Amino acid sequence: MPERWYQQAVIYCLDVETFQDSNGDGVGDLRGLTSRLDYLARLGVSTIWLNPIHPTPGRDDGYDLTDYYAVDPRLGTLGDFVELVHQCDNRGIRLIIDLVVNHTSDEHPWFVSARSDPDSPYRDWYVWSPTEPPNAEEGVVFPGYQRGTWSHDEQSDSWYHHRFYAFQPDLNWSNPAVREEIGRVVAFWLELGVSGFRMDGAPFVIEEVHPDTADRVMHYEWLNDLRDLIAWRRGDAVVLAEANVPREQILEFFGPRGDRLPMMFNFAENQQMFLALARGSAAPLVTAVQSSPAIPPAASWATFLRNHDEIDLSGLRESERADVFAKFGPDKDMQLYDRGIRRRLAPMLGGDPERIRLAYVLQFSLPGTPVIRYGEEIGMGEDLSLDQRNAIRTPMQWADAPQAGFSPAEETVRPVIAKGDFGYPAVNVRDQQRDPESLLSWFQRVLPVLRESPEFGSGKCTVLDTRHEAVLGLRYDCPTGSVLAVLNLGTDAVTVDLSPQPGVTDGFPVDVFADRDYPAAGDLSAVELAGSGYRWLRLSRAVGA
Ligand code: GLC
């Protein structure tokens, strides 16, 4: 079995500016995060993914940056960053950072120079057209908030390309000088000690754009180059890429020999998880896992329920999407970009602790490495009064104290959620640390079990026929041993027969994690599950594994 650290990781995604403020200016910072590392270590997190930390005008939460080689002064200094890396090392925690290289901010000095002078050395670092391209209104990523993908630049009286908002001009990756510079950026951060990157908008990075045609040539070989460059600098570094593309295309991102990007978010499965939870049916996931393409051995999926963006349901059929909207985001205000839901998980599931735990066990039971968004471990909610995706980007709720213990300042980067079922008096770390029944305590129990079960990250996965619509059964085998995950997505108790094929013996299945104490699973012919119940059963473990 090829073993890669990222196949057995638990990745925790956070935005420094909303995690912990250390200097009282109302903005979370690197020192604040460093002071919370013991919390993350105790939670069972092995890798932290930081949302963009670079200088930024902040019009897309840092995904619009003005300097690849610096830390936003509001968050701290490069010195603070290196100290953070060091303190992570001390705790055996790895750090990965967002790599936003499809575009810069329009305030980046490269773009400022490019638009100011046709002879600028940076002119060709962006994608221009002398006239309005015929497809200028196509391909928008943020419908309702983004007018087109080409905008007129008055200064140079020409049009520039931008996949995202108009203030995020796309870099011209066809220009080798751009690729070389990005190579230097990557090398810089690896040298500072990061274990890899979360690559933003990977498909857009590698598409070659021409103003006169909507056809786009995809340069997958640029990913090979990037991978080589990273591997030369740090052999075990990971790139976890965002590529919300059809499944057939995903394999191209991993590379036919696993020689491009080692880890991809599983967007398709994310949507199927919500469909399964909405319908109380395992069927969507049975199909999703069975039809999931085989990926190269060293490659890995990253699973997630919630991230820093809306839940993108555009991969579902219309009736499926309607079911998910009806159940989890019925109000127009909860929906975004005609395709998604801008809510956190706990309120979507009505704050029901059993359903929330089931949802997370479901995520952890699927093939791949789990990524968890900060605040999900305590069941934080959203603030729909905030614009677009900011609804789910409110400060971490540390305590029932002013500003949720996030900051002593009167005004914070975004308001903390203070009222209602998900306000900080009701939902916070400190109270949950003292309560063994809390969601946080549950996370502290489940994550170590997950990490003791490398089968989930890197074993061979087989979907079992549970003969029950609501019950998902997955079996994982790898040289360290075998495990079963059995989950009841319905709300009625069931008993299922999972006895192995004739001739196969499965030793003495032992519950390693379950929603309650169940009678021993014995020969697996009558496995009991409560409504919303789940069981992880270890079938065998290799000696010493
Ligand atoms: C990615 C990020 C999103 C951002 C966009 C533009 O999709 O996840 O938050 O707005 O890229 O960088």
UniProtKB/TrEMBL annotation:
Superkingdom of this protein's organism: Bacteria
An annotated GO BP: carbohydrate metabolic process
Catalytic EC class: isomerase
Entry GO MF terms: maltose alpha-D-glucosyltransferase activity
Gene3D superfamilies linked: Glycosidases, Golgi alpha-mannosidase II, Oligo-1,6-glucosidase, Domain 2
Species the sequence originates in: uncultured Mycobacteriales bacterium
Name listed for the protein in its UniProt record: GH13_16 / GH13_36 / GH13 / GH13_31 / GH13_ 40 / GH13_17 / GH13_23 / GH13_29 / GH13_4 / GH13 _30 / GH13_35 / GH13_20 / GH13_2 / GH13_21 / GH13 _34 / GH13_1 / GH13_19 / GH13_18
Domain Glycosyl hydrolase family 13 catalytic positions: 13-434
Key words, A-Z: Isomerase
CDD domains from the UniProt entry: AmyAc_TreS (cd11334)
Enzyme Commission designation: 5.4.99.16
